[in-house]
Structures are given as structure tokens and as C-alpha cells.
Amino acid sequence: MRLYLSLCLFFILTGLSAQDKYILTGDRLMERSAFLEALEKYQISYIYNEDYISSQRISSVYFALQRFEEAANWQKKLLNFSGSVPEDHLQLAKTLVSLNQYDEALTQVNTFLSKKPGDPIGRKFLYLVTFLKNGDISPIRGRDRAVDYCVELKATNDPENIGPDVKLEWHFDDGTITFGP
């Protein structure tokens, strides 16, 4: 209750626009992991003004909630705003990988790299998405497994030398761990 009163007083004293008030409230709710409440505030902000900031916040909430279809739809909207940055393509690619849409993810990574050529994170993500797209990544077929993708993002002066830095880690139900590319 104190937080709510503090926020109300802050908004009254600072004279922020209604949209800014909803964005700030949503940001504070996100810090507390109150995702659904934050989503509501961001959606109200979007009603006031269909802009990049509201859309970006909405897409990040959907991603945090693992509602990847909605996140991808909002991330695609981001690309149409004048404030769009190259990293929006990379975030969309990450979401598309979560949806197993590797071809479209590769397109987004390549678009990112066309805007930021030689970017080490983009190059390594390109390698990882290509690796995922090209087949079963399990080292042992038929075994129950959960796969964690660990990408070491070491900056290098040679953007062509990206393959060895990508490491995959497999965790099996019996507690064993296998490493490899």
C-alpha cells in the first residue's frame, strides 16, 4: 500500500504523462516479478500511444512468461518503429528458436549481422542456430535428456573463428553431464 501511495505522489509531483506513469509502474512491477500486473500496465500505456517503448516492454513480459508466440508477434511490431535497433532482430531470433522456427530465426540473425557486421554475439548465435537447425543435437539417442545451451561469448578480433567457442551441455536424468559441440 505504501508503494502505491508513493507512486501516486511521485506521479502527481512530477507531472509525468499518463503513458509514462504506466511504463514506470510496469517497470517496478517487473522488478518484483509481477509479470501479469506489469503486462496490464504496459498494455494500457500502449493504448495511450502505440510506440516502441510500450511494445518492447510488452514483448519482454510475454518472453518472461514463456508465451513465445505473443512475444514474437510483439517483437515483429518492434521492427516497424523508427526507434528499432539491430538487437531487436536478435531478440526475435531468440524467440523464434524457442518456437523451433529455425529458418526464420536465421533470417533475423542475418538481418542483425547485415546491420552490425562481424558482431561476435551475432556470429556465435548464427553458429548456434545453424547447428540447431541441422539436426538432432543429442549425443546419445533414445536417452531421456534435457538440453541446456551454453554459449561462451568471448570477444575475438577474428569474427570467423567462432565455432570452438560454442559449447553444449547435456543433463541426463541419471545425473550425468556430457559436454561437446
Task: Describe the overall structure.
- The chain has 181 residues and is mostly helical.
- Helix content is 58%, strand content 10%.
- Helix 2 runs antiparallel to helix 3, helix 2 runs parallel beside helix 4 (52-64) and helix 7 runs antiparallel to helix 8 (120-133).
How many helix segments?
8
- The helix fraction, in percent, is 55-70%
Q: Shape, please?
A: globular
Oligomeric category? single chain
Total count of strands = 3
What is the N-to-C order of secondary-structure elements (H for helix, E for strand)? HHHHHHHHEEE
Please describe the biggest sheet, giving its number of strands, its sense, and whether it closes into a barrel. Answer: 3 strands, antiparallel
The N- and C-terminal alpha carbons lie at a distance of 51 Å
Whole-number mean pLDDT: 77
% residues in beta strands: 5-15%
Name the strands of the widest sheet in spatial order. 1-2-3
Q: Which parts are unreliable, with pLDDT below 50 for 5 consecutive residues or more?
A: 138-162
Structural class: mainly alpha
The gyration radius over C-alpha positions equals 20 Å
